[in-house]
Amino acid sequence: MSLGQELAPHLPFLRRYARALTGSQGHGDAFVRATLEAIVAAPNDFPRNVDPRLGLYRTFHAIWSSANIEEDLDETGDDDAQGIAQARLARITPLSRQALLLTAMEGFTPEDAGYLIAAEPDEVESLVAEALAEIERQTRAEVLIIEDEPIIAMDIETIVRDLGHSVTGVAVTRDEAVSQAMARRPGLVLADIQLADDSSGIDAVKDILAEFQVPVIFITAFPERLLTGERPEPTFLITKPFQRSTVKAAIAQALFFDRATVPA
Fold it and tell me: Closest Cα partner for 148 from 206, 220, 208, 216?
């Protein structure tokens, strides 16, 4: 099997990580492209003593670190998210956010995450705790949940409230979601892809975003379909079945880039 064939299954999830880290599909996908270009240019430099996924993320981190992106976010001109992030980055270290996303969203062990960011496993655990504590102190929002499975909806609502946020409502169809959003504008939307009446959570979100801007996290059992890098796609994505820590990390990261929750 060629190196390209080994890496292909992992690319959608690297896109997910890169988008969450940068708060932008455009920026995240650009860093993934740069990573692949670096591998193609120097295939012998690719780490072959570890799992291909680890090697891929390790190469990404080398590109990310060399670009000094954390310091340059406010100069990219992509959108408001970059300036918003700059206000927060002064209060939280880049390594903490990386450790949080690598473990809670990408499912790496503390040992593997440590390999990726050059830290000991116990340091990774400390960084994750630091990131969650700091982001949760900075962010509070009203959340609209679009989910047609009652048990999952209740679980998400519990997680949201445990994080200190409030819930504006739980919608099970496209029309209901739009109606609730217009009645009480949320500060965050958590949306399933497939809804009860065979309508689409994506369409519901498009309708809402046509009226006002709000950060959105999509929930799906088929993340690869929304992480191709070939069209406008979600920045924040949770895979079903999900862990509570994954939802917490996604919410914290989505609100991290939202103007409504900029720290004073």
Answer: 220
- Residue 33 CB neighbours (<10 A): 14
Phi-psi region of 164 (alpha: psi -120 to 50; beta: other; left: phi over 0): left
CB 20 within 8 A of CB 12: no
**187 and 260 in contact (C-beta within 8 Å)?**
yes
Distance between CA 139 and CA 229 in Å, rounded? 29
What is the per-residue pLDDT across 211-230, written as a single tens digit (0 to 9) for each? 999 999 999 888 887 888 87
Q: Residue holding tokens 């690319």?
A: 11
Residue 239 tokens read as 């895979």
| CA 123 centroid distance within chain | 22
Instruction: Write the pLDDT tens digit of every residue in 120-162.
Output: 999 999 999 988 787 667 667 899 999 999 999 999 999 999 8
Of the candidates 161, 168, 162, the one whose C-alpha atom is nearest the C-alpha of residue 143 is: 168
Of the candidates 183, 195, 192, 198, the one whose C-alpha atom is nearest the C-alpha of residue 239 is: 192
Strand order in the sheet with 216-220: 166-171, 142-146, 188-192, 216-220, 236-239
Q: What are the residues whose beta carbons fall under 8 Å from the beta carbon of 108, sequence distance 6 or more?
A: 57, 102, 116
Q: Which amino acid is at 2?
A: S
Nearest residue to 249 via CA among 18, 94, 20: 20
Q: In a 3-state reduction of DSSP, which class is residue 237?
A: strand
220 bridge partner residues: 239
pTM given for the model: 0.72
Asked if 85 and 257 touch (Cβ cutoff 8 Å), the reply is yes
Contact between 144 and 181 under an 8 Å Cβ cutoff? The reply is yes
Q: How far apart are CA 100 and CA 159, in angstroms?
A: 17
Dihedral-angle region of residue 120 (phi above 0 means left; psi in -120 to 50 means alpha; beta otherwise): beta
Is the separation of the CB atoms in 60 and 32 below 8 Å?
Answer: yes
